[in-house]
């Protein structure tokens, strides 16, 4: 296990009704906030009204940026920064899923930066300061509610890039599982796949010694495999929504990646699917993951797949190592396609192989020439995985 720094600065208010503290908490930081949200789900399910009521009660003036797209665009960030600068706003409140939260984070840093906020996406070393970010989470998926990551797209240049800043970690996140009752089945599935993928990206590591982190990762995986289908089929099941919400935060807040190399594999490949085809993040991950696993399975990696198959899926440890590994991969794929009803192929998301060459080259270029994850991937590996997934 390597040395690590672990600090999560987010105050979490978890559970039904916690929004009642939103106004008093934000008022500790500012009396003017930019409220950032997406296409209107928060108006339909009443969260918008509850939040505004709480803010008014504590005399926090509300400015708004709406229509943040899934796979948030740099244009929305620029608009948000301009509103904040014009009105001397002291904090950004995201109400939504990862898209609204990520957009808010880059807005918050853009307010303290003189140039174009796209610079902050391309070069995270420029993210030095920000105004505070607060979130009310409405979709369990990205973990953005408790980390310093933000992923922004530039559809003109077909780029989707992740940035990071410790200052971007939300100061406050309200996690009310009932706010996810209205998430449609398709996004419940995609969100669950995203949590699973974050866990895999950390679990499949070459760095030995993180025994505790591995067992915690397995607990998160089991939680998703158990509660994902329950939430999918019974959207108002509180325990299912609550467990997925808490799993989402802990899969990617630094806990299970602590002490490991933490180089991700499937996410960089998926980001190109979204950059070129605006694919839903979790669906892209669910399609690519089993093919990535099959592509990298070898004598060098089989023991990690055995650990996964035995500890998470309860496969008989006395079987042949490769049989266990392949069974575990098949079970993973079946979970995504049969339990969560996510399409099995990229073709079903209307992709063709037309851009695979370009996408594969970009996926490795963003990572400095190759994806140095659990197994190093070059452009030809990435292209092969796209082809297997088609
Ligand atoms: O826009 P609205 O109307 O709110 O509808 C959204 C959107 O259409 C809807 N939705 C959200 N909560 C709802 C709801 N509908 C009904 N009821 C609710 N309670 O769901 C749709 C998807 O929302 P979005 O925020 O896009 O989803 P998600 O949370 O999956 O975020 C995806 C983005 O986050 C990035 C992804 O790449 C993608 O851009 N990621 C961010 C990460 C991070 N910051 O750490 C890590 C992830 O790996 C990921 O890359
Ligand atoms: Zn993700």
UniProtKB/TrEMBL annotation:
- One cellular-component annotation, GO: cytosol
- Which terms does the record give in the GO molecular function aspect? alcohol dehydrogenase (NADP+) activity; butanol dehydrogenase (NAD+) activity; metal ion binding; methylglyoxal reductase (NADPH) (acetol producing) activity
Q: Which UniProt keywords apply?
A: Oxidoreductase
Q: Which Pfam families match?
A: ADH_Fe_C, Fe-ADH
Fe-containing alcohol dehydrogenase-like C-terminal domain boundaries: 188-389
| InterPro entries in UniProt | ADH_Fe/GldA, ADH_Fe_C, ADH_Fe_CS, BDH-like
Q: Where is the Alcohol dehydrogenase iron-type/glycerol dehydrogenase GldA domain?
A: 10-177
Q: Which SUPFAM superfamilies match?
A: Dehydroquinate synthase-like
Alphabetized PROSITE patterns for the sequence: ADH_IRON_1 (PS00913), ADH_IRON_2 (PS00060)
> What is the protein named?
Butanol dehydrogenase
From which source organism is this entry?
Answer: Peptostreptococcus russellii
